[in-house]
Amino acid sequence: MFLHNFKYAMRTTMKNKTTLIWTLLFPIALATFMYMSFGELFEEEMMDVIPVAVVVQESNPSFEEVLASLSKEGEDQVIDMTVTSEKKALEKLENEEVDAIIYVTDIVYLKVPGNSYEATVLKTIIEEYYKVRYVVTDIGKTAPEMMQNALANLRSDNQYYTKMKTSDGNQDVYTNYFYAIFAMSCLFASFVACEKIQKIQANVSPLGMRRCLSPNSKMITILAEFFAMLITQFAIELITLAYMVMLGVDFGNKYPQIILVLFFGSCIGISFGIIIGSMTRFSSGAKEGICTCISMILSVMADLCASGIKYSIEQTMPIINRLNPSALIVDSFYALNIYDTYDRYFQNIATLGIMSAVLIIISFFIIRRNKYASL
After folding, report:
1. Rounded distance, CA 119 to CA 109, Å?
2. SS3 for 341?
């Protein structure tokens, strides 16, 4: 009996226009527009080489050595230095060929068109140079016998007291928007679930009347609908994932774990729709409106529209993020990309699984208690 119900549930689910539009086409379209908006930012370096014009007005061998070191080609290159006259340097700055002009005299100074990231970096370089110069000069005056040791220490590599660890995932902040798209897509499965569960209720549709007269158990009927929707929604999430990867979004290389997140995300979205659809005090239109409203609110709270909302909630009322299925889905992706353990990831997965089971059980008891005076 279960297989018979499951077969027809699969057929009706795959033919449902809501499934095609809201859970497949809409997330794909949204991901495309988002990638077109800021996809190129994924390819930018954390710090680009800064083009500067250098005007030597007075010989300063020590600072010129610093500039030569910073402009040396390689991974550690900071500036792209062009030594030229002041007139040509001003022309380059006006034409935006360089970001700044460094005037080399005994007192080095900087000319930039305004406040910017590049100006801050160059200003820091000059300030650091003068700090070192002051230390060396002071040692030369007060303790010249320590000069050799001081120079050796200044030239040695910096000592770091933190250990750097790399992650297999993508830690780009913009990727959070694509995580939120998956969360929204999973919750949009509630539209189909709400519609489908109403069709097994006699007071909603003629089809529900006929199904209530059948000898099928309510639990078998609900489970058949649930697994049919789950398989369909899970396949849609995999298609969306494949599309985003081909688009160029980097989700790291932990794809088995990512797929597991999508599976449980599909579960919670469908369970969410089933419990709303099982409510008898609301009309069909009201139930659809509730699904839409709550799904969008939960997705926005998980950083769908603006990065930082989820973090703000975490700082003020973290319990909301622990119960928001959309936030749990996003946080599962985040945990995969940031942490080298799976504790937080499995905690989120377990929460999604428990919530799904609880919602299904509650829905079953609600539908089971429905009584009809006549059919």
Report:
1. 12
2. coil
Distance CA 226, CA 6 (A): 9
Tokens of 186: 């999973």
Q: Give 225: exposed, middle or buried? Use CB within 10 Å, 0-12, 13-18, 19+.
A: buried
Spatial CA neighbour of 367 closest among 188, 264, 216: 216
- In order along its 375 residues, the chain shows pLDDT tens digits of 677 777 877 887 777 776 677 788 888 998 888 888 765 555 544 456 888 888 988 888 888 888 888 888 776 778 888 888 988 988 888 888 888 898 988 888 888 876 666 777 888 888 887 877 777 777 777 777 676 676 565 555 444 434 445 455 555 666 778 888 999 999 988 888 888 887 776 566 666 566 665 666 777 778 888 899 999 999 999 999 999 989 888 888 889 999 999 999 999 999 999 899 888 777 778 888 898 899 889 988 887 777 778 878 888 888 998 999 999 999 999 888 877 789 999 999 999 999 999 998 888 888 776 655 444
Sign, CA torsion 14/19/20/25 = negative
> Which residue reads 């303790």 in tokens?
143
Please state the φ and ψ torsions of residue 283, each to the nearest 5 degrees. Answer: -75, 170
Tokens of 320: 């909301």
Nearest CA to 270 out of 347, 319, 325, 344 is that of 325
Domains in the chain with CATH codes? 2-41+170-369 (no CATH), 50-155 (3.40.190.10)
Handedness of CA 26, 29, 33, 36 (dihedral sign): positive
Terminal Cα distance for the chain, rounded: 23
Helix (H, G, I), strand (E, B) or coil at 333: helix
Q: What is the pTM of this model?
A: 0.65
Q: Measure the CA–CA gap between 67 and 154, rounded to whole angstroms.
A: 17
Helices 218-247, 2-14: crossing angle, 10 deg rounding:
40
* Pairing verdict, β 109-111 and 100-104: antiparallel
H-run or E-run covering 344: helix 343-369
Between the alpha carbon of residue 188 and those of residues 22, 184, 229, 296, 339, the distances in Å are 7, 6, 12, 9, 29
Residue 160 three-state SS: coil
